[in-house]
Amino acid sequence: MSIFDLHSQVLADYRDFVRSFFTVADERARQFVEHALVEEARLWPDFLLQVSPAYARAATVDELATQGMLHAETARIFRTSEGHPFHLYQHQIEALEKARAGESYVVTSGTGSGKSLTYFCRSWTTSCGSRRASGGAGGLPDERPGQLAAVVFGKAQRGL
User: Fold this and answer.
1) pLDDT at 155 (0 to 100)
2) Computed from CA positions of residues 18, 24, 29, 35, in that sequence, does the dihedral angle turn out positive or negative?
3) What integer pLDDT is reported at residue 80 of this predicted model?
4) How far is the C-alpha of 107 from the C-alpha of 152, rounded, in Å?
5) pLDDT (tens digit, 9 = 90+) per residue, 32-77?
6) Distance between CA atoms of residues 126 and 147, nearest Å
7) Is 151 exposed, middle or buried (0-12, 13-18, 19+ CB in 10 A)?
8) Residue 143's closest CA among 101, 92, 107, 106?
9) Cβ neighbours of residue 99 closer than 8 Å, sequence gap 6 or more
10) Chain-centre distance for alpha carbon 142
11) What whole-number distance in Å separates Cα of residue 129 and Cα of residue 2?
């Protein structure tokens, strides 16, 4: 069964489910409802097929820590379950460069592109830098107290 066949079957099952809640006695009204359910597909939109772009890989968190872009502790934390360093995409590195320069930024890209990681890496590096300023270990020379990151997650809309 292809994904399109599955889509059609799910819609047919849902249409039958909706029909089970009402009985239309009047023939003209029943035809109107059937037309709305079947021909106009009023309960659901057409399917949407999206393909995520291939994002350009640029550097690992280890490489960025060596360059001074991230704190070494950040590179130690952001690793795969096998212990390999995260590999960041070009748009993530560009956002980190803006943050390091003290510029505000917003990352807008597709699902799975690492938007949140952009903020988390920088926030963690800033936190490590704040520890240095207060007598703790680590830090980067350009860290400024009072830096703030807000990560906002929207609720995904789901439907049948």
Assistant:
1) 52
2) positive
3) 92
4) 11
5) 988 888 888 777 766 666 666 778 889 999 999 999 888 888 899 8
6) 7
7) exposed
8) 101
9) 105, 122
10) 29
11) 52
On the CB side of 132, CA atoms within 13 Å amount to 16
Supply the pTM of this predicted model.
0.52
Is the distance from CB of 92 to CB of 117 less than 8 angstroms? yes
Question: DSSP secondary structure string, the chain?
Answer: --HHHHHHHHHHHHHHHHHTT----SHHHHHHHHIIIIIS-TTSPPP----PPPPPEEEEHHHHHHTTSS-HHHHHHSB-TTSPBPEEEHHHHHHHHHHHTT--------TTS-HHHHHHHHHHHHHHHHHHHTT-S---TT--TT-------PPPP---
